Amino acid sequence: MSPKTSAPYQRVLIASANPLFGQGLEKMIQRQWKNPQLEIRRVASNEAVLSEMQSWSPDLIILDYDDKAISRVEFLQEFVTGEQPMQVMLVSLKSSGAVVVYDRRTMTPAQAEDWLNLPKFSQTTSEHFPLQRRSSMKHFVIVGVLIAAFTGLIYFLLSNIPLLPIAASVQAQPIDRLFNLHFFMISLLFSLIVVFLGYSLVVFRQKAGDDEEDGVYIKGNNPLEIIWTIIPLGIVIYFAYLGSVSLAETRRADPQALEIKVVAGQWFWRFEYPDYGIVSNAMVMPVNKQALLKLTSLDVIHSFWVPEFRVKQDTLPGENLVRELRVTPTELGEFKVRCAEMCGTSHAYMESPVKVVTQAEFDQWVQDQLAALGTDPVARGEVWARNNGCLSCHSVDGSPNVGPTWKGLYGLTHELTDGSVVTVDDAYLLTAIINPNAQVPKGFVPGVMPQIYKDTIPEQQILEIIEYIKSLK
Length: 473
Ligand code: CUA
Fold this sequence. Notes:
alpha/beta; 13 helices; elongated; disordered N terminus
Protein backbone atom coordinates (compact mmCIF):
# COMPACT_ATOMS: atom_id res chain seq x y z
CA MET A 1 0.00 0.00 0.00
CA SER A 2 1.50 3.32 -1.01
CA PRO A 3 1.66 6.04 1.70
CA LYS A 4 0.28 8.62 -0.79
CA THR A 5 -3.17 6.99 -1.07
CA SER A 6 -5.47 8.39 1.56
CA ALA A 7 -6.86 5.53 3.60
CA PRO A 8 -10.55 4.80 3.28
CA TYR A 9 -10.86 4.33 7.04
CA GLN A 10 -11.14 7.02 9.69
CA ARG A 11 -12.08 5.00 12.77
CA VAL A 12 -10.27 1.76 13.41
CA LEU A 13 -10.99 -0.44 16.40
CA ILE A 14 -8.42 -3.07 17.38
CA ALA A 15 -9.73 -5.83 19.64
CA SER A 16 -7.22 -8.05 21.40
CA ALA A 17 -6.29 -8.95 24.96
CA ASN A 18 -2.71 -9.28 23.75
CA PRO A 19 -1.05 -5.85 24.07
CA LEU A 20 1.70 -6.72 21.59
CA PHE A 21 -0.88 -7.55 18.92
CA GLY A 22 -2.67 -4.23 19.43
CA GLN A 23 0.42 -2.01 19.68
CA GLY A 24 2.14 -3.61 16.72
CA LEU A 25 -0.91 -3.26 14.53
CA GLU A 26 -1.56 0.33 15.58
CA LYS A 27 1.99 1.41 14.77
CA MET A 28 1.88 -0.32 11.42
CA ILE A 29 -1.42 1.27 10.43
CA GLN A 30 -0.27 4.74 11.41
CA ARG A 31 2.99 4.39 9.56
CA GLN A 32 1.29 3.13 6.39
CA TRP A 33 -1.74 5.36 6.12
CA LYS A 34 -0.34 8.65 7.45
CA ASN A 35 -3.90 9.98 7.70
CA PRO A 36 -4.28 12.91 10.17
CA GLN A 37 -7.98 12.20 10.56
CA LEU A 38 -7.35 8.57 11.42
CA GLU A 39 -8.47 7.54 14.91
CA ILE A 40 -7.45 4.23 16.41
CA ARG A 41 -8.89 2.72 19.58
CA ARG A 42 -7.79 -0.45 21.30
CA VAL A 43 -10.02 -2.65 23.44
CA ALA A 44 -9.27 -5.88 25.26
CA SER A 45 -12.60 -7.44 26.24
CA ASN A 46 -15.80 -8.74 24.72
CA GLU A 47 -18.01 -6.09 26.36
CA ALA A 48 -15.74 -3.26 25.28
CA VAL A 49 -15.82 -4.38 21.63
CA LEU A 50 -19.62 -4.57 21.60
CA SER A 51 -20.08 -1.23 23.29
CA GLU A 52 -17.57 0.60 21.05
CA MET A 53 -19.24 -0.97 18.04
CA GLN A 54 -22.57 0.55 19.14
CA SER A 55 -21.48 3.94 20.38
CA TRP A 56 -18.42 4.87 18.30
CA SER A 57 -19.35 3.17 14.98
CA PRO A 58 -15.83 2.36 13.68
CA ASP A 59 -15.58 1.68 9.95
CA LEU A 60 -12.94 -1.05 10.42
CA ILE A 61 -12.64 -3.54 13.25
CA ILE A 62 -9.53 -5.71 13.48
CA LEU A 63 -10.15 -8.67 15.75
CA ASP A 64 -7.56 -11.07 17.17
CA TYR A 65 -8.81 -14.42 15.92
CA ASP A 66 -6.72 -16.38 18.41
CA ASP A 67 -7.87 -14.39 21.44
CA LYS A 68 -10.06 -16.51 23.74
CA ALA A 69 -11.16 -13.43 25.74
CA ILE A 70 -13.22 -12.21 22.81
CA SER A 71 -16.20 -14.29 21.72
CA ARG A 72 -16.18 -14.41 17.96
CA VAL A 73 -19.71 -15.82 17.77
CA GLU A 74 -21.24 -13.09 19.88
CA PHE A 75 -19.32 -10.42 18.04
CA LEU A 76 -20.30 -11.67 14.58
CA GLN A 77 -23.97 -11.90 15.62
CA GLU A 78 -23.84 -8.28 16.61
CA PHE A 79 -22.05 -7.38 13.38
CA VAL A 80 -24.62 -9.14 11.15
CA THR A 81 -27.57 -7.37 12.76
CA GLY A 82 -26.08 -3.88 12.42
CA GLU A 83 -26.76 -1.58 9.50
CA GLN A 84 -24.14 1.10 8.88
CA PRO A 85 -21.18 0.20 6.55
CA MET A 86 -18.45 -1.59 8.43
CA GLN A 87 -15.62 -3.95 7.65
CA VAL A 88 -14.16 -6.60 9.91
CA MET A 89 -10.83 -8.39 9.69
CA LEU A 90 -10.23 -11.49 11.76
CA VAL A 91 -6.44 -11.91 11.98
CA SER A 92 -4.91 -15.15 13.17
CA LEU A 93 -1.20 -15.01 14.01
CA LYS A 94 -1.21 -18.75 14.69
CA SER A 95 -1.96 -19.60 11.07
CA SER A 96 0.86 -17.34 9.78
CA GLY A 97 -1.25 -14.19 9.65
CA ALA A 98 -4.27 -15.66 7.82
CA VAL A 99 -7.01 -13.04 7.52
CA VAL A 100 -10.80 -13.47 7.20
CA VAL A 101 -12.62 -10.38 5.97
CA TYR A 102 -16.30 -9.49 6.51
CA ASP A 103 -17.68 -6.53 4.65
CA ARG A 104 -21.02 -4.98 5.60
CA ARG A 105 -22.37 -2.44 3.15
CA THR A 106 -25.61 -1.60 1.42
CA MET A 107 -25.58 -1.63 -2.37
CA THR A 108 -28.00 -0.85 -5.17
CA PRO A 109 -28.95 -3.93 -7.22
CA ALA A 110 -26.69 -2.68 -10.04
CA GLN A 111 -23.74 -2.26 -7.69
CA ALA A 112 -24.36 -5.72 -6.31
CA GLU A 113 -24.33 -7.18 -9.81
CA ASP A 114 -21.02 -5.48 -10.57
CA TRP A 115 -19.63 -6.69 -7.32
CA LEU A 116 -20.61 -10.28 -8.12
CA ASN A 117 -18.80 -10.01 -11.43
CA LEU A 118 -15.54 -8.85 -9.87
CA PRO A 119 -12.64 -11.01 -11.06
CA LYS A 120 -11.75 -11.98 -7.49
CA PHE A 121 -14.99 -13.93 -7.34
CA SER A 122 -14.36 -15.96 -10.44
CA GLN A 123 -10.99 -16.91 -8.98
CA THR A 124 -11.44 -18.28 -5.50
CA THR A 125 -8.38 -19.50 -3.67
CA SER A 126 -9.12 -23.14 -4.39
CA GLU A 127 -9.11 -22.49 -8.15
CA HIS A 128 -6.08 -20.26 -8.03
CA PHE A 129 -3.63 -22.98 -7.06
CA PRO A 130 -3.97 -25.39 -10.00
CA LEU A 131 -3.40 -22.42 -12.33
CA GLN A 132 -0.17 -21.57 -10.59
CA ARG A 133 0.85 -25.20 -10.61
CA ARG A 134 0.26 -25.52 -14.34
CA SER A 135 2.46 -22.49 -15.07
CA SER A 136 5.25 -23.75 -12.80
CA MET A 137 5.03 -27.15 -14.53
CA LYS A 138 5.74 -25.25 -17.75
CA HIS A 139 8.91 -23.77 -16.18
CA PHE A 140 10.02 -27.21 -14.99
CA VAL A 141 9.56 -28.69 -18.46
CA ILE A 142 11.60 -25.90 -20.07
CA VAL A 143 14.32 -26.18 -17.41
CA GLY A 144 14.38 -29.99 -17.81
CA VAL A 145 14.94 -29.71 -21.56
CA LEU A 146 17.66 -27.06 -21.06
CA ILE A 147 19.43 -29.25 -18.47
CA ALA A 148 19.42 -32.24 -20.84
CA ALA A 149 20.82 -30.09 -23.65
CA PHE A 150 23.51 -28.53 -21.46
CA THR A 151 24.53 -31.89 -20.02
CA GLY A 152 24.94 -33.28 -23.53
CA LEU A 153 26.99 -30.28 -24.64
CA ILE A 154 29.36 -30.24 -21.65
CA TYR A 155 29.78 -34.01 -21.73
CA PHE A 156 30.61 -33.81 -25.43
CA LEU A 157 33.25 -31.13 -24.75
CA LEU A 158 34.77 -32.98 -21.79
CA SER A 159 34.96 -36.25 -23.73
CA ASN A 160 36.57 -34.59 -26.73
CA ILE A 161 39.20 -32.49 -25.00
CA PRO A 162 42.28 -34.73 -24.65
CA LEU A 163 42.47 -34.58 -20.86
CA LEU A 164 44.23 -37.94 -20.56
CA PRO A 165 47.14 -39.44 -22.50
CA ILE A 166 46.45 -42.63 -24.48
CA ALA A 167 45.41 -45.64 -22.45
CA ALA A 168 48.23 -48.13 -22.95
CA SER A 169 47.41 -50.96 -20.56
CA VAL A 170 44.66 -53.45 -19.75
CA GLN A 171 44.43 -51.87 -16.29
CA ALA A 172 43.67 -48.47 -17.85
CA GLN A 173 40.31 -49.62 -19.18
CA PRO A 174 38.24 -49.81 -15.96
CA ILE A 175 39.87 -46.58 -14.81
CA ASP A 176 38.92 -44.73 -17.99
CA ARG A 177 35.41 -46.13 -17.71
CA LEU A 178 35.15 -44.54 -14.25
CA PHE A 179 36.58 -41.26 -15.58
CA ASN A 180 33.96 -41.29 -18.30
CA LEU A 181 31.11 -41.76 -15.83
CA HIS A 182 32.49 -39.00 -13.66
CA PHE A 183 32.65 -36.67 -16.63
CA PHE A 184 28.96 -37.38 -17.19
CA MET A 185 28.08 -36.75 -13.53
CA ILE A 186 30.10 -33.53 -13.56
CA SER A 187 28.24 -32.37 -16.70
CA LEU A 188 24.84 -33.22 -15.21
CA LEU A 189 25.45 -31.62 -11.79
CA PHE A 190 26.98 -28.50 -13.31
CA SER A 191 23.99 -28.10 -15.68
CA LEU A 192 21.48 -28.77 -12.90
CA ILE A 193 22.84 -25.88 -10.84
CA VAL A 194 23.74 -23.42 -13.58
CA VAL A 195 20.57 -23.85 -15.67
CA PHE A 196 18.25 -23.39 -12.66
CA LEU A 197 20.25 -20.35 -11.57
CA GLY A 198 20.45 -18.77 -15.01
CA TYR A 199 16.79 -19.47 -15.84
CA SER A 200 15.62 -17.90 -12.58
CA LEU A 201 17.83 -14.86 -13.10
CA VAL A 202 16.40 -14.24 -16.56
CA VAL A 203 12.75 -15.31 -16.31
CA PHE A 204 11.92 -14.27 -12.75
CA ARG A 205 13.77 -10.99 -12.86
CA GLN A 206 11.90 -8.09 -11.21
CA LYS A 207 10.29 -5.95 -13.88
CA ALA A 208 10.20 -2.15 -13.74
CA GLY A 209 7.25 -0.94 -11.64
CA ASP A 210 6.68 -4.35 -10.13
CA ASP A 211 6.51 -3.60 -6.42
CA GLU A 212 5.09 -6.89 -5.33
CA GLU A 213 6.29 -8.24 -2.05
CA ASP A 214 8.64 -11.17 -1.40
CA GLY A 215 7.71 -14.67 -2.49
CA VAL A 216 5.90 -17.21 -0.35
CA TYR A 217 7.87 -18.43 2.63
CA ILE A 218 8.15 -22.21 2.35
CA LYS A 219 9.26 -24.10 5.42
CA GLY A 220 10.21 -27.71 4.68
CA ASN A 221 8.91 -30.22 2.17
CA ASN A 222 9.19 -33.82 3.31
CA PRO A 223 8.69 -35.67 -0.01
CA LEU A 224 11.26 -33.39 -1.69
CA GLU A 225 13.77 -33.84 1.14
CA ILE A 226 13.38 -37.62 1.03
CA ILE A 227 13.89 -37.63 -2.75
CA TRP A 228 16.99 -35.45 -2.65
CA THR A 229 18.50 -37.67 0.03
CA ILE A 230 17.68 -41.05 -1.49
CA ILE A 231 18.77 -40.30 -5.07
CA PRO A 232 22.29 -38.95 -4.29
CA LEU A 233 22.77 -41.71 -1.70
CA GLY A 234 21.91 -44.31 -4.34
CA ILE A 235 24.35 -42.72 -6.79
CA VAL A 236 27.15 -42.65 -4.22
CA ILE A 237 26.58 -46.31 -3.33
CA TYR A 238 26.55 -47.23 -7.02
CA PHE A 239 29.87 -45.42 -7.54
CA ALA A 240 31.39 -47.13 -4.51
CA TYR A 241 30.37 -50.47 -6.03
CA LEU A 242 31.86 -49.51 -9.42
CA GLY A 243 35.04 -48.34 -7.68
CA SER A 244 35.61 -51.64 -5.91
CA VAL A 245 34.83 -53.66 -9.04
CA SER A 246 37.33 -51.55 -11.01
CA LEU A 247 39.97 -51.88 -8.32
CA ALA A 248 39.60 -55.67 -8.39
CA GLU A 249 39.91 -55.58 -12.19
CA THR A 250 43.21 -53.66 -12.05
CA ARG A 251 44.57 -56.23 -9.60
CA ARG A 252 43.59 -59.38 -11.46
CA ALA A 253 46.66 -61.64 -11.38
CA ASP A 254 48.12 -63.61 -14.25
CA PRO A 255 50.21 -66.57 -12.94
CA GLN A 256 52.47 -66.25 -16.02
CA ALA A 257 53.36 -62.63 -15.18
CA LEU A 258 56.90 -61.40 -15.79
CA GLU A 259 58.42 -60.29 -12.50
CA ILE A 260 60.26 -56.98 -12.46
CA LYS A 261 61.76 -55.60 -9.29
CA VAL A 262 61.50 -51.81 -9.31
CA VAL A 263 63.95 -50.02 -7.02
CA ALA A 264 63.55 -46.29 -6.46
CA GLY A 265 66.24 -44.07 -4.94
CA GLN A 266 67.27 -40.43 -4.80
CA TRP A 267 67.07 -39.89 -7.76
CA PHE A 268 66.93 -42.83 -10.10
CA TRP A 269 64.92 -45.86 -11.04
CA ARG A 270 66.45 -49.33 -11.31
CA PHE A 271 64.72 -52.33 -12.84
CA GLU A 272 65.82 -55.83 -11.97
CA TYR A 273 64.72 -58.95 -13.85
CA PRO A 274 65.32 -61.81 -11.36
CA ASP A 275 64.34 -64.41 -13.97
CA TYR A 276 67.27 -63.31 -16.18
CA GLY A 277 69.76 -61.74 -13.75
CA ILE A 278 69.53 -58.42 -15.57
CA VAL A 279 69.63 -54.95 -14.02
CA SER A 280 68.60 -52.01 -16.19
CA ASN A 281 68.00 -48.25 -16.13
CA ALA A 282 65.11 -48.59 -18.53
CA MET A 283 62.05 -50.71 -17.98
CA VAL A 284 61.62 -52.97 -20.99
CA MET A 285 58.33 -54.89 -21.20
CA PRO A 286 56.91 -57.31 -23.76
CA VAL A 287 53.53 -56.15 -25.08
CA ASN A 288 50.31 -57.93 -23.98
CA LYS A 289 52.07 -59.77 -21.19
CA GLN A 290 51.31 -58.94 -17.58
CA ALA A 291 54.25 -57.60 -15.61
CA LEU A 292 54.23 -58.03 -11.85
CA LEU A 293 56.14 -55.07 -10.46
CA LYS A 294 57.59 -55.44 -6.97
CA LEU A 295 58.37 -51.94 -5.82
CA THR A 296 60.72 -50.82 -3.11
CA SER A 297 62.74 -47.76 -2.17
CA LEU A 298 66.30 -47.31 -0.95
CA ASP A 299 65.72 -44.09 0.95
CA VAL A 300 62.49 -42.05 1.07
CA ILE A 301 59.00 -42.58 -0.34
CA HIS A 302 58.81 -42.31 -4.13
CA SER A 303 55.88 -43.13 -6.37
CA PHE A 304 55.91 -45.18 -9.57
CA TRP A 305 53.68 -43.55 -12.17
CA VAL A 306 53.37 -44.11 -15.90
CA PRO A 307 50.35 -41.95 -16.83
CA GLU A 308 49.58 -44.06 -19.93
CA PHE A 309 49.20 -47.14 -17.72
CA ARG A 310 46.91 -45.12 -15.34
CA VAL A 311 47.86 -47.19 -12.26
CA LYS A 312 50.23 -45.71 -9.70
CA GLN A 313 51.95 -47.06 -6.60
CA ASP A 314 54.13 -45.57 -3.87
CA THR A 315 57.48 -47.21 -3.22
CA LEU A 316 58.35 -47.47 0.46
CA PRO A 317 61.75 -47.87 2.12
CA GLY A 318 62.09 -51.12 4.09
CA GLU A 319 62.62 -54.80 3.32
CA ASN A 320 59.10 -55.85 4.31
CA LEU A 321 57.33 -52.95 2.66
CA VAL A 322 57.49 -54.25 -0.92
CA ARG A 323 54.42 -53.12 -2.87
CA GLU A 324 52.98 -54.83 -5.93
CA LEU A 325 51.51 -53.41 -9.10
CA ARG A 326 50.28 -55.30 -12.15
CA VAL A 327 50.59 -53.76 -15.60
CA THR A 328 49.71 -55.41 -18.89
CA PRO A 329 50.94 -53.03 -21.62
CA THR A 330 48.78 -53.03 -24.75
CA GLU A 331 50.55 -50.41 -26.89
CA LEU A 332 54.03 -50.65 -28.39
CA GLY A 333 56.16 -47.59 -27.84
CA GLU A 334 58.24 -45.64 -25.40
CA PHE A 335 56.75 -44.03 -22.31
CA LYS A 336 58.22 -42.51 -19.17
CA VAL A 337 58.00 -43.50 -15.55
CA ARG A 338 57.83 -40.44 -13.31
CA CYS A 339 58.15 -40.09 -9.60
CA ALA A 340 54.85 -38.83 -8.25
CA GLU A 341 55.91 -38.20 -4.67
CA MET A 342 57.97 -35.17 -3.62
CA CYS A 343 61.29 -36.76 -2.66
CA GLY A 344 63.90 -34.01 -2.61
CA THR A 345 65.71 -31.54 -4.86
CA SER A 346 65.83 -33.71 -8.01
CA HIS A 347 62.32 -35.14 -7.68
CA ALA A 348 61.23 -33.38 -10.88
CA TYR A 349 63.95 -35.10 -12.91
CA MET A 350 63.38 -38.58 -11.53
CA GLU A 351 62.18 -40.21 -14.70
CA SER A 352 63.28 -43.21 -16.73
CA PRO A 353 62.26 -44.70 -20.07
CA VAL A 354 59.64 -47.45 -20.23
CA LYS A 355 59.84 -49.40 -23.49
CA VAL A 356 57.03 -51.66 -24.59
CA VAL A 357 58.34 -54.05 -27.27
CA THR A 358 57.27 -57.26 -28.97
CA GLN A 359 58.13 -60.57 -27.30
CA ALA A 360 60.84 -61.19 -29.96
CA GLU A 361 62.42 -57.78 -29.32
CA PHE A 362 62.28 -58.44 -25.59
CA ASP A 363 64.08 -61.79 -25.96
CA GLN A 364 66.74 -60.09 -28.11
CA TRP A 365 67.16 -57.35 -25.48
CA VAL A 366 67.67 -59.98 -22.78
CA GLN A 367 70.38 -61.65 -24.91
CA ASP A 368 72.09 -58.31 -25.55
CA GLN A 369 72.07 -57.37 -21.86
CA LEU A 370 73.61 -60.67 -20.82
CA ALA A 371 76.25 -60.43 -23.56
CA ALA A 372 77.07 -56.80 -22.74
CA LEU A 373 77.97 -57.69 -19.19
CA GLY A 374 80.90 -59.70 -20.53
CA THR A 375 83.71 -60.79 -18.27
CA ASP A 376 85.73 -57.57 -18.07
CA PRO A 377 85.51 -56.42 -14.43
CA VAL A 378 85.89 -52.74 -15.44
CA ALA A 379 82.98 -52.90 -17.91
CA ARG A 380 80.86 -54.79 -15.41
CA GLY A 381 81.78 -52.31 -12.66
CA GLU A 382 80.56 -49.45 -14.85
CA VAL A 383 77.20 -51.21 -15.27
CA TRP A 384 76.85 -51.73 -11.49
CA ALA A 385 77.82 -48.13 -10.80
CA ARG A 386 75.24 -46.89 -13.25
CA ASN A 387 72.49 -49.26 -12.07
CA ASN A 388 72.99 -48.38 -8.42
CA GLY A 389 72.79 -44.66 -8.98
CA CYS A 390 76.45 -43.98 -8.04
CA LEU A 391 76.88 -41.73 -11.07
CA SER A 392 74.12 -39.37 -9.92
CA CYS A 393 76.53 -38.00 -7.29
CA HIS A 394 80.00 -38.92 -8.61
CA SER A 395 81.20 -37.63 -11.95
CA VAL A 396 83.65 -39.67 -14.04
CA ASP A 397 85.07 -36.67 -15.96
CA GLY A 398 86.40 -34.54 -13.11
CA SER A 399 83.41 -32.17 -12.90
CA PRO A 400 82.30 -31.28 -9.35
CA ASN A 401 79.20 -32.99 -7.93
CA VAL A 402 77.66 -34.00 -4.59
CA GLY A 403 80.46 -36.51 -3.99
CA PRO A 404 84.12 -36.57 -5.06
CA THR A 405 84.72 -37.18 -8.76
CA TRP A 406 86.02 -40.65 -9.63
CA LYS A 407 88.37 -39.37 -12.33
CA GLY A 408 91.92 -39.72 -11.08
CA LEU A 409 90.67 -40.57 -7.60
CA TYR A 410 92.64 -43.79 -7.16
CA GLY A 411 96.07 -43.18 -5.67
CA LEU A 412 95.27 -39.63 -4.48
CA THR A 413 96.12 -38.44 -1.00
CA HIS A 414 92.98 -37.26 0.80
CA GLU A 415 92.79 -34.98 3.79
CA LEU A 416 89.84 -36.13 5.91
CA THR A 417 87.38 -34.05 7.92
CA ASP A 418 89.15 -35.14 11.14
CA GLY A 419 92.46 -33.76 9.83
CA SER A 420 94.15 -37.13 9.16
CA VAL A 421 95.48 -38.03 5.74
CA VAL A 422 94.84 -41.22 3.76
CA THR A 423 95.82 -42.60 0.40
CA VAL A 424 92.95 -43.72 -1.80
CA ASP A 425 93.56 -47.44 -2.31
CA ASP A 426 91.34 -50.56 -2.59
CA ALA A 427 90.80 -50.73 1.18
CA TYR A 428 89.85 -47.06 1.45
CA LEU A 429 87.38 -47.33 -1.48
CA LEU A 430 85.75 -50.43 0.02
CA THR A 431 85.26 -48.62 3.35
CA ALA A 432 83.96 -45.53 1.56
CA ILE A 433 81.28 -47.63 -0.15
CA ILE A 434 80.12 -49.87 2.68
CA ASN A 435 80.66 -47.45 5.58
CA PRO A 436 80.66 -44.01 3.97
CA ASN A 437 80.72 -41.92 7.16
CA ALA A 438 83.91 -43.50 8.54
CA GLN A 439 86.43 -41.48 6.47
CA VAL A 440 84.87 -38.43 4.85
CA PRO A 441 87.28 -36.32 2.77
CA LYS A 442 87.62 -32.66 3.67
CA GLY A 443 85.13 -30.46 1.82
CA PHE A 444 82.34 -33.05 1.82
CA VAL A 445 79.47 -33.44 4.27
CA PRO A 446 79.13 -36.67 6.30
CA GLY A 447 75.74 -38.42 6.15
CA VAL A 448 74.98 -37.49 2.52
CA MET A 449 75.99 -40.81 0.96
CA PRO A 450 73.51 -43.59 1.80
CA GLN A 451 74.78 -46.34 4.09
CA ILE A 452 72.79 -49.04 2.34
CA TYR A 453 75.16 -50.37 -0.29
CA LYS A 454 76.69 -52.93 2.04
CA ASP A 455 73.28 -54.67 1.93
CA THR A 456 72.00 -53.78 -1.53
CA ILE A 457 75.04 -54.44 -3.76
CA PRO A 458 76.60 -57.92 -3.76
CA GLU A 459 80.26 -57.88 -2.67
CA GLN A 460 81.51 -59.11 -6.05
CA GLN A 461 79.81 -56.15 -7.72
CA ILE A 462 81.33 -53.69 -5.20
CA LEU A 463 84.80 -55.04 -6.05
CA GLU A 464 84.04 -54.59 -9.75
CA ILE A 465 82.91 -51.00 -9.11
CA ILE A 466 86.28 -50.40 -7.43
CA GLU A 467 88.00 -51.83 -10.54
CA TYR A 468 85.98 -49.37 -12.62
CA ILE A 469 87.05 -46.44 -10.37
CA LYS A 470 90.70 -47.55 -10.66
CA SER A 471 90.37 -47.49 -14.47
CA LEU A 472 89.33 -43.78 -14.48
CA LYS A 473 92.74 -42.15 -14.68
CU1 CUA B 1 61.32 -39.80 -6.15
CU2 CUA B 1 59.99 -37.90 -6.30
